UniProtKB/TrEMBL annotation:
One of its GO terms (biological process) is proteolysis. Keywords: Hydrolase, Membrane, Protease, Transmembrane, Transmembrane helix. This is HtrA2 peptidase. It comes from Caldicellulosiruptor acetigenus (strain ATCC 700853 / DSM 12137 / I77R1B). The chain crosses the membrane at residues 36-61. The keyword Zinc does not apply. The lineage of its organism: Bacteria, Bacillati, Bacillota, Bacillota incertae sedis, Caldicellulosiruptorales.
Amino acid sequence: MTDKFDFETPNYQPSYSPINFEIPKTIRKKKSAKEYIVAGLIGGLIGALLISIFFMAYFGVNFNNFKNDINSTLNSFNLNNSTTTEPITKTVVLNSGDSSFVTDVAQKVGPAIVGIKNKGTAYNWWTDEEQEITMGEGSGVIISKDGYVVTNNHVVSGAKSVTVILSGKKEVPATIVGTDALSDIALLKIDPKYVKAVAPLGDSSKVKVGEFVVAIGNPLGQEFAGTVTFGVVSAVNRKLDMGNGIQIPLIQTDAAINPGNSGGALVNSSGEVIGINTAKISQTGVEGMGFAIPINYVKPIINDLMKYKKVLRPTIGISVMEYYDRSGNVMGMYISRVYPGTGAAKAGLKEGDIILQIDGKKVTTFSDIQSILSNHKIGDVITIRVLRDGQTKDFKVTLGTPIDTTTND
């Protein structure tokens, strides 16, 4: 019968069905002649063994060798197969090559990682004149023999001048070729004669979660230049708002990234740059959450900066402002102007239309539009749903090149 439990009664006593236990009397059985013979033999062997041990100890025989012989004899009779009390352990030998690539990566890519100094001016009240000061420091990556260096836009933002510190500590002047705040990428150039190493660019589309990576940069400035940290890819396509309305698909890593690492390289085990280190989550209780801009995202930006000194992003060809309903909620984006000759004008969009959706995604801010367009290129066709005269209507718009919005048409 099952015990009855009463969790509210402190002096709980389980109830049972009464069972009477009876201990049976011992029944003795007479031994056979065969059993007596076996017992006698075993006793004789044990007696002979004890006598042998006595004589060996008396005459100085090596007991250890004898013990080994005895153990060997016992094993041959399978008399030592009882369960052992010693723990069974398995030694796992790690492949020494698992992380040995870090040394090779450091030697291969390290010389192509440089320091970046953002310099400005400040008024010196003592001398009554402007003097040059260092406003910030970061890292950069030499990507070509021509002297092009890629870094973060926030590293050089607001700079009056920029210098590059090579791996040999030599500081050389650099020019800012172009910057792009939306992607946080900037392109610099130094004299090619200073280029001693170039970092090869990889393919970030092949990056997998869990693979080993190395971050190289200058955390906290030149005092810790060329610092190498090791970790894994924690995640890919992390969409984080960089503070400009654009959500860049970032690579997340637990390789240590600190202030000053910005603009440095995230490198795979083949020694290829797969990302440009850009940010980390810095708050109490959070560790090992750094982020890099995928190199495949960076490449077209670099190409545009080289060719046009700016990034040619696709445009719709309109000016917009937020449109509110009677309750004060944003309904969509009001088109205040349609520029002639653009995709919007050719598609039939008009001033006064209210954009509700783009490619099926709700639009209530300019940042929403920017975020959607960041996933497209010039020549792509998008679907824009607008509210016109109380009715919704869809338009197919071909994205074009940036336009000069200052012209009076």
